[in-house]
Write a structure and sequence with these properties.
Blueprint lengths: L15 E5 L9 H6 L1 H16 L4 E5 L15 H11 L8 E4 L7 H6 L3 E4 L5 H6 L3 E5 L13 H4 L5 E2 L2 H9 L6 H9 L14 H4 L1
Parallel strand pairs: 1-2, 1-4, 2-3, 4-5, 5-6
């Protein structure tokens, strides 16, 4: 693996967007999963704003664990996500919607085929930055994921947190690429300066 140059865009019009779906398996309680309101709003809010911005397509990449059956009927987390997305009003989905199979589709390919990534708290942030794309952190959820309160790179504000549809809209309508080189250097730290045995920077080996 190697660091990719940044793919900078000043507008999202007609761009391809990758959404890294919230990990249902990490949600705190069974009751929270069953209510599903926050999960529905996550997609509804993003879709509404992206439709206003005239993006060309959106690909949903679920957490790999969402492919596991959750009950005796064989329903999976992917079924839950697709059900939520299908319930979003058609006038908020004015673009092509695709689904990526996280178990079989390489995340590098998904990232490189899109112009920008939007998601909840996720370790895939590092892959997004390594492969040269900006990551939009959108968190309108009420209940935090277990163990994520100590994710300092999110909580200290290194990654800007957008908590409402209005914040997301204002940020994307006025979107300007951040200093991604500085962001990547801050998040990956000394990894960028280390070398593997062949003398080339290999962040995946060193992470």
């Amino acid at each position: 693996g190697k660091l990719m140059p940044f793919h900078k865009k000043n507008s999202l019009k007609e761009k391809k967007i990758l959404i890294l779906g919230p990990a249902i398996i990490c949600m705190d309680t069974f009751r929270y999963q069953m209510q599903s309101e926050a999960l529905y709003n996550f997609f509804s809010d993003i879709f509404e704003v992206l439709s206003e911005l005239s993006v060309s397509s959106v690909t949903i990449r679920p957490h790999p664990g969402e492919d596991e059956p959750r009950n005796q009927f064989g329903y999976t987390g992917n079924d839950i996500l697709q059900s939520m997305i299908n319930k979003v009003e058609a006038n908020k989905k004015l673009f092509d919607i695709k689904f990526s199979n996280s178990l079989f589709q390489n995340i590098e390919r998904d990232i490189l085929e899109h112009d920008i990534a939007i998601g909840h708290k996720t370790g895939a942030l590092f892959e997004v930055l390594i492969f040269g794309r900006d990551f939009i952190y959108f968190d309108n959820m009420i209940t935090p994921y277990y163990g994520t309160k100590d994710w300092s790179l999110f909580n200290e504000g290194t990654i800007k947190k957008l908590e409402t549809k209005e914040e997301l809209r204002n940020y994307l309508v006025n979107y300007k690429p951040p200093d991604l080189e500085l962001l990547r250097e801050k998040l990956l730290g000394n990894i960028l300066t280390q070398k593997n045995s062949n003398g080339t920077t290999d962040p995946f080996t060193l992470l």
